[in-house]
Amino acid sequence: MVGMPRTLSTSNMVTPGSLGPPHPEPTDGEQAGQPLLDGAPSSASLDTLIEQLVPKADYYPEKAYIFTFLLSSRLFIEPQELLARVCHLCIEQQQLDKPVLDKAQVRKFGPKLLQLLAEWTETFPRDFQEESTISHLKDVVGRIAPCDEAYRKRMHQLLQALHQKLAALGQGPESLLGTDKPISYRNKPPASIHRELLSICSDPYTLAQQLTHIELERLQHIGPEEFVQAFVNKDPLASTKPCFSDKTNNLEAYVKWFNRLCYLVATEICMLSKKKQRAQVIEFFIDVARECFNIGNFNSLMAIISGMNMSPVSRLKKTWAKVKTAKFFILEHQMDPTGNFCNYRTALRGAAHRSLTAHSSREKWPLIQETVPGPGIAMIRQLKTCHQLDD
Q1: Are 58 and 109 contacting, i.e. CB atoms less than 8 angstroms apart?
Q2: How many whole angstroms separate alpha carbon 251 and alpha carbon 221?
Q3: What is the helix (H) or strand (E) element at residue 40, kind and residue range?
């Protein structure tokens, strides 16, 4: 697995008083003499990597390795098959299929197994949508439960948390996004159909908050595995071919939301017939974009800038002549793609640093009040396609 981050040193990987992680013999797919690096695989076969994932009575894999392997392994093996192999190795190594178990050994191994399963179900709950995967969990935990009834109780709690996560993910962002497609009008639609955004929310500060609520609502449904699946499905010979599949529904919905926000910005500007009104709306969205930048909502910021750079808007030269563009150029500079989005990456690192050093959630998100989304939800229903108006 090329690019897999190195885990911590051996002393940091094992539990106190442990003997160290397992060092399996090189297999046919490995080069003899260098299967491990600082206690973690640097080049190894899939079997060796799976063995490194399986806990033992005196060994537990580094958390970074667990996440990295579970994320990247789906390129080579289905998660359901991986879980089956992990459970089989646990049963085989700990001799859990024997009629009489070594209770002292199982009591050392049991908490580590449950911890691994908890981390797996917490980070990648979609891997457990199939009934067969739940059966594997129940089987392996059922074998160690006679040694300590607390294991069965912990397993019950784990399954309850997993069920809640899957239920929440099952709702998905599409229910909020709506299934209706943007409608194109040759003329301005009746007032009963379309309401100008400024009549719903005229405060840039408030609208930036509501957009961030919407972004977070959609972002929480996206699992890290969806990004991997998107790369897997990408056809390198057809750059225009969609990289989405049934395994990347939430990521696709998030992209659709970005596009709809772009269209909303362009539509709100182009729907107005007077240059002065259009200039006012452009300046309003510039202020909204600035507030999004202050919050750290870079996705909405990029969508707003993209909407104002769409040809139906950018070609309105006389309208732009009435706009105070200094703030817009500063924000556009932050999202400049030059140097692989160098400016954006710098701003993102700064926002991440502020979040890490914050002492409270309010310091992380200083502009988001503890309120439910308000006019932002109504705003979604206003999304229409752009109109090209003569300037």
Answers
A1: no
A2: 8
A3: strand 40-41
